[in-house]
Structures are given as C-alpha cells and as structure tokens.
Amino acid sequence: MTSPGAPPLEGIRVLEFAGLAPGPFAGLLLSDYGASVLRIDRPFHAATNSPTNDLLTRHKSSLCIDLKSSSSIKLLHNLLQAGKIDILMDPFRPGVLEKRNLGPEVCLQLNPRLIYARITGFRRTGKYSMMAGHDINYLSVGGGLSAIGRKGEAPYAPLNVIGDFAGGGAMLVMGILLALLNRNKTGKGQVVEANMVDGASYLFTYPRLNGAGGGGWGRKSPIWAGPRGTNLLDGGSPFYDTYETKDGGYMAVGCLEPQFYDIFIKLLQLDGPVPNRVVKQNWPELRKLFTDKFKSKNRKEWEQIFDGTDACVTPVKSFTELEAEDQEGVTKAPVELKESPGKNTKPEIGGLRAGQGGEGVLTEWCGWVKGREFNIKNGVCQAMEPKAKL
Q1: Residues 6+ apart with CB under 8 A from 382
Q2: Cα–Cα distance between 354 and 46 in angstroms, integer?
Q3: Alpha carbon separation from 110 to 83, 104, 361 (Å, rounded)
Q4: pTM higher than 0.85
Q5: Nearest Cα to 22, choosing from 61, 67, 54?
Q6: How many helices (H) and strands (E) does the chain have?
Q7: Residue 240: how many CB atoms within 10 A of its CB?
Q8: What is the tens place of the pLDDT at every residue in 253-301?
Q9: Which one of 164, 262, 271, 326 is the catalytic residue?
C-alpha cells in the first residue's frame, strides 16, 4: 500500500478577508485540505493584540491591512498582479470592497485566473440585499424556518448551523471547487457568489418538495402532509424523537422502518399491548408509553440495551463527552480521502493573532522581502514606495 500523498488543495493560495462565521468556516475547510490561507485582518494596537475570538483559524496565517490606506491597497494589487492568489474571499455586504478598489472587475483584471468568491446573508439584489441579518433571518425568508418546531408552537431557530455554515460557508466552498475545476479547463477565473438564503433553502429541497411548511406546489406526501410538528420527520412521530432518561440524559429514537421498529419495541419491553403505530391517532399514546419507559432507566443502562442492535436508538451525547472520549466527529475530517488526506483537524486552543505568520507567507508565495517589496508600519502591511531615481 502506498503512503498517502499531499493534501488535495496543496498549492492553492487563498486570501480570506476576516469576517463572521461563514467566511472563516469556508477558509477553514480549504485550509484543512491543504490550501494556504492568508487571513486579512484589520489594524490593531500592539498593546491589545490578543488572539482573535474567531476559533476558525486553524492552519491559517494573518496579515494586517488597512483598507483605507492606499499603500495597503497597493500591496494587495501587487499580490494579485503577481498571480500568486488563486482565491479571494469577500465576506462583506455588497459594495464594500468595490469602494476600496478591490471589487471583482479590478481584481480579475489584475489576475484573470482569480476565483473571486463572495458570501452574503441575503441575496445580493432585491428587498433585503442591504439589510443586516443573521442565521435566523436567512432561514426565515428562505422558508426553512417555517418547517422547524413543535406542534402548536412558534417556529424555533436551530443552532446557527443551517444558514451560516451549511447554507453559507460550505456552499461557498462547493462553488469555489467548481470554479477551480472550470479553471482547469478554461484557464480563466470567475466570480463565485453564494448567499445563505438560497444556500439554506437548497438544503430544504427534499422536505419542501414533499410539502413541508406548505411547500411542494400543492404536492403532499405522507412524510410531510400535516402542519409543522405533526409529521414523520419533524418531531411529530413518537418513533423519531428524543426521550429523557431517569438520570436526566436523553436517548434518540429513529426506528422508521418496520423491522427496526420491531427490534425497538422488543428491547424496550413495554408492559401490555402496543398500539399500532401506522394509525396516526395512536401516536400520542405511544409517545406517553415511550416517555414513561425511558424514564425507568439511566442513559447508560439504555445504551447497554440498544448498543450493537438495529433498533436505531442512540445516546444524545454532549460535546463535552465527545471531547473527553475523542470519538467520531470531534477530531476527524468531514471527508476522508485515502490517497490525499487533509491535515490534522484537532481544534487549536486559542485563535490566531492579527499579523501572525503573514510576513512569512508573502515570502513563501512571492519571494518578497520585508524592506524591499513590503514594509510593516504600526502593525500594518504596506507596499514599498518605489525609490526616486536620481
């Protein structure tokens, strides 16, 4: 068996303008799989240059740039013109980088092979384009939020994973990779635009087409035929839900298929006859039976009963537990490539400091030397002014 090769994105150089969660997460995905990511941070005061609160900086370096300084803008233009940047990531609202002479038209003219990747919350045009918002807002106007929640209750926002990270950062990375593939064919870069409204909405394609939240253009499937919180996969079903245990823990039950449900019922050992689950009117009674039974044992006891079976019952583990056990999903990459694996994804303690490692990256990428092509003044990186000819 041959030894694994280099990470798949080794040699790809990324300029990531520091922003909120989606942009840094996209940069993290790229860096975890070998890309060299240079984060562009704002100027800082030397006395207060503590590590950033953004913990999505693994494997990255930082360079401080003052976007109001013509010398700093010149340095970025020089970097682009040198052809040493493959991807530029813009996390700002529409028009911010254009005002700094760093919009896509300027950057692609300087480097026609550049992938200019932009991520916004709302769509770049239309009613909400210039409004502030967060994950819950992008889910709400994209329709997904309407399908999440318990029966008779208001829709509730999950963790900011669907909009910010899955519909935002991960979708942006998909666009970047597609653009890189296209560049291999055409030799040309392009603008990649992602937004969290459409990204999150796309993730809801299956439930929406099956009628969740009133979608599906009138089509109603058995899976999502009813209102929010009354269906098979949205918390309405008693055999697809979570149950509290005697010690305050929780077990997740997902025995959808009949053969798995039969194993679940057998191992649960309910007293007396069990109502037919196919009859939806029996769901409240079943839920009560399951609720009472799970509270009769500790979570560990239920784990011992269900582990290794096809009952589709598992413990609801906290991140604290996972970190202590170092189990699945804590330090492993999301996708494993056997021949070209990514880098170590173990979380780093503490964030990146502004300016950390950036000078070395300029030397590595371009062969630039401090005091010749660039200088650092008050922590800010600037292009060197050409010497006057005598």
Answers
A1: 66, 69, 71, 72, 74, 75, 374, 375, 376
A2: 10
A3: 8, 10, 20
A4: yes
A5: 54
A6: 13, 11
A7: 17
A8: 999 999 999 999 999 999 989 999 999 999 999 999 999 999 999 999 9
A9: 164
CA angle centred on 301, ends 297 and 305, rounded to 5°: 115
Residue 187, class by beta-carbon neighbours within 10 Å (0-12 exposed, 13-18 middle, 19+ buried)?
Answer: exposed
What φ, ψ does residue 244 adopt, rounded to 5°? -75, 145
Query: 67: which 2 tokens?
Result: 């976007």
331, 345 Cβ separation under 8 angstroms:
yes
Q: Are 88 and 380 in contact (CB under 8 A)?
A: no
Query: What whole-number distance in Å separates Cα of residue 77 and Cα of residue 125?
Result: 27
Burial of residue 357 (number of CB atoms within 10 Å: 0-12, 13-18, 19+): middle
DSSP assignment string, 109-158: HH-TT-EEEEEESS-SSSTTTTS---HHHHHHHTSGGGG-S-TTS-----
User: What sign does the dihedral 99-104-107-110 (CA atoms) show?
Assistant: negative
- Residue 108 amino acid letter: L
**Cα–Cα distance, 317 to 184 (Å, whole number):** 43
| Three-class DSSP category at 243 | strand
pLDDT of residue 51: 77
How far is 150 from 148, CA to CA, in rounded Å? 7
Instruction: Write out the two tokens for 10.
Output: 């080794």
* Catalytic residue list contains 41: no
pLDDT in tens, 115-164: 999 999 999 999 999 899 999 999 999 999 999 999 999 999 889 999 99
Do residues 26 and 89 touch, judged by C-beta distance below 8 A? yes
Token couple for 376: 């650092």
pLDDT in tens, 308-334: 999 999 999 998 888 788 755 566 788
